[in-house]
Here is the input.
Amino acid sequence: MSPKKLYIVTGKGGVGKTMTALALVKALQSQTSKNVYYNCFDTTPDKELCKKLDIKTIEFPIQESTTEYIGRKLGSKNIAKWVMKAPFFKALFNIVPSLGNMITLGHMIDTLQNEDDDIIVIDAPSSGHILTVLESPKNFNQIFRTGALVKDIHRMTDFMQSDDLVETWVLNIPTELAVTEGRELIEKLGKSGISNIKDVLNNALFKNELIANEELPEFLDRKVTIEKEVIKSLDSNFDLVFPMYIDKSPIQLVKRIEKKILTELKK
Ligand SMILES: Nc1ncnc2c1ncn2[C@@H]1O[C@H](COP(=O)(O)OP(=O)(O)OP(=O)(O)O)[C@@H](O)[C@H]1O
Ligand SMILES: [Mg+2]
Here is the structure.
């Protein structure tokens, strides 16, 4: 596993993004001596869980990222703070909501480009949100066309589209709706120029080792059959498959997924 600089773990609500992102941080930690950080974009991470797992978090609060960015452009952080107090600025963030996302992403990329030893794993809020974030540089480019901002946008886009720097994990669970959404997301990401994608199936009951040799109650047996049918009919070929694990403690779950990531990626 040759580590990238940025990992994005995404997928629809409740598919296991948080558990997988944390497990990916642990797997990367065990494979490199670099600083691997967990980030939740614009939501607050579960710091207690991260601490228990010995995972470092990194946050880019919008206010600080914006002051930093404008400060760099104007050559003074103090002037930046003053500029941001202007009503015009507040209005700008309301008029262009994705501006905030873009500045956060830009700050993150800057940090990664300045720190050779840093790796960030993003637990992306949801598939719709991540698409907005990824598309915002493109939209801005169309609005501004030339100037300093556009240069920065190009730098961001180049970074995000580099297969050596960024890897995106699209998470699915074995239901028709989730897998169909996953396929759509991969297609849309492709249109944003993101092609280094791992298609991941999580929570697969049919992969659970405990049930393999057991006589199952009928409803579980049905569930396994449905899962297999869904996967077959959608002709899915997943890069990684994580079983549905029975023990639900988040720490145990993260450790199991981590182990699975490490064994699967060594193949
Ligand atoms: N492989 C698995 N086996 C068993 N349970 C799992 C597995 N993966 C996730 N879960 C459980 O599913 C639930 C959702 O997982 P998680 O919080 O990681 O999803 P999420 O995609 O981050 O959700 P949200 O969209 O709400 O942020 C949790 O209760 C978690 O314990
Ligand atoms: Mg989550």
Q: What stands out?
A: The longest strand covers residues 197-204.
